[in-house]
Amino acid sequence: MNNEYLERAKQVVPDAKTLILLASRRARQLACGARPMVRCKDENHLDVALLEVAEGKLAANFDGKGEDDFIKEINALKEAAKREAGEVNVKNKHDNE
User: Fold this and answer.
1) DSSP states of 23-58 as a string?
2) pTM for this model (two decimals)
3) What is the pLDDT at residue 19?
């Protein structure tokens, strides 16, 4: 973890628990294929997430409303990856005939 990014993120989100939740949730999104909102020399997802927080690209919003969308997005990414790998056969409406 890049300490410079951490210190900058702490200035934006001073509460440690909130910063942990925000950065870890965003790092998970990045690991699942979300695109970074900043240019970062590090490839570590947590470093990218901390830099996004430090630059004000993320806001702490834990009302629970976005979690379903996040899970749907992850499942869609997984299905797309399976289709690309040829693991999932897309059913055609003529398959049942």
Assistant:
1) HHHHHHHHHTTPPPSS--S---HHHHHHHHHHTT--
2) 0.63
3) 92
Cα separation, 72 vs 68, whole angstroms: 6
Question: What is the pLDDT confidence band of residue 4, given thresholds at 50, 70 and 90?
Answer: very high
Q: With b meaning 16 or more CB within 10 Å and e meaning fewer, what string describes 58-89?
A: beeeeeeeeeeeeeeebeeeeeeeeeeeeeee
When pLDDT is averaged across residues 17-28 and rounded to a whole number, the result is 90
pLDDT for 76 equals 74
Any idea what the Cα angle at residue 59 is, between residues 75 and 36, rounded to 5°? 55
The alpha carbon of 85 is separated from its chain's Cα centroid by a whole number of angstroms, namely 22
Distances (CA, A) of 82 to 47, 55, 65: 28, 34, 28
Which of the following CATH numbers is that of domain 3-85: 3.90.940.10, 3.10.180.10, 2.170.150.20, 3.40.50.2300?
Answer: 3.90.940.10
